[in-house]
Amino acid sequence: MTRPVPPGARVRAQAAFEARMLLGNGEQLLVSLVLPALALVGLTLASVPDLGAACRVDVATAGALALAVVSTAFTGQAIATGFDRRAGVLRLLGTTPLGRGGLLGGKALAVLAVLAVQVAVLGALGLALGWRPQPAGLLPALLTLLLGAGSFAALALLLAGTVRAEGVLAVANLVWVLLLGLGLLLPTSSLPGPLSALAAALPSGALGDAVRAALVDGAWPWGPWVVLLVWGTAGTAGAVRWFRWSG
Amino acid sequence: MTDAVVVRDVRRVFGPVTALDGASWEAPLGAVTAVLGPNGAGKSTTVDCLVGLDRPGSGTVRVLGTDPWHADAGHRARVGVMLQDGGLPTTSRPLPLLHHLAALHRDPWPVEDLARRLGIDGFARTTVRRMSGGQRQRIALAAALVGRPDVLLLDEPSAGLDPHGRREVWRLVREEADRGVGVVLTTHSFEEAERVADGVVVLAGGRVVAAGTVADVAGTEGLETTYFRLTEGPPR
To answer: What compartments host this protein (chain B) (predicted)?
Structure first.
């Protein structure tokens, strides 16, 4: 009688398959690695905008890591899931031993694997440019990246499961560009007037400020974590309620 | 012996549309059963219920004696599925995709052998997005076969294939049935039913209007005439 491999092996197989697709896709590689790296180098070497009293490369590396999270967990995952949904991939995989639970597990693991590659590459680039993270901030920074990835992945699934594929492509890229300027790369406190308060309430500002607080100041960013948690919970609730497996 | 598929009094309503209206039929292991019917007869809704993607409003569906809705991975490993929309990731290439699906099973069909059988090695470098409809059909069929399932549920497996491709699909389906697999395929081609099937279930308007061996259903008029008579009958 034909039998499946154990659940863990199924999830790992799916994660490896998805990670290879994410890393093998040129456009996605541009968004997940090349553009964050360019932002890191550009912000470090330029003299504008003013990044405050802290060392420029420290602020720039933290911002690039926050941007990398949004690239993979949100933009990349939303586009991949949106097109998979339209092509019926989610339906077909639901009938294989992988199933829907395994599919979600595989996606989560794939996001973490790609994120690890991004952190390694951008971290190495930052170190080469003189980045010196606060040792006390490494643990809260790691927790921030994980919380940020979870929150943005939930929002990605909400988008991918409710809007048609072309719409997902447009919105996911547009949101990436907007959030880049709304607290991901630059501290929300450096943004003008009302934008500053808006950005701090968005998941982008919360993620960016939290990574900076951890890596630049060695702090535990409880406030931004609450904001991320609220967005993540809302995204999860919305996805559970409205996600459609076929499209 | 357990039947491959048992459908009992299944009703499924989508808003104002009654897709299945009390359908009952069964399909044995070791045989090919063709579910025949015009567009809108309820074929794809039936397949969705059989593969666990949809649940009947009333009535019961059993595949290998198990309710497919929320069935576990052990059950899903025993059931190979080919859906009408294919369900293939558009940016993937065939061999990595089939290797991935094979990796979900303990004792899969060796991918290289399966690819050779279905002529997939001829377009192994093409991404799904750039494939012809017939090429995609072959990948989707390979995806259904790769786990060496006990039951094959195939939604219009030969749609869009040229005569050579169709013949190869029919051969494969026959071989699988001969080694004990219960094959259920949907089609709106009575020619396909006549060529490949042992049993036929004719659906019209969500109901079973005829079921039995091909010879029984064809009767003295032949399958073509019988099919048109059954499916063009008075409105439901």
So the answer is: Cell membrane
